[in-house]
Amino acid sequence: MITRILLLLLVLLTACPGADGNSAISGQIFLDLNKNSIKDGTDSARSGWVVWLDGNNNGLPDASEPKTLTDANGNYKLSNIAAGSYQVRHEMPVGYGSSVAATGANLNQQIVGGTNAPSGKWKAIVALLNSATTDPFQAQFCGGSLIAPDWVLTAAHCLVDSNNVVRAASSVNVAIGITKLASPLTRISVSQIIIHPSYIRPSFDNDIALLKLSSQSNADAVLPLLPSQTALAATGVNAPIVGWGTLSEGGSSPTDLQESSVPIVDQSTCVSQLAAEGSTVTANMICGGFPAGGIDTCQGDSGGPLYVSNQAGFRVAGIVSFGIGCARPNLPGVYTRVSNYDAWLASKISRGTPPNVAINIAAGEQKTQNFAVQTP
Question: 256 catalytic, yes or no?
Answer without folding.
Answer: no
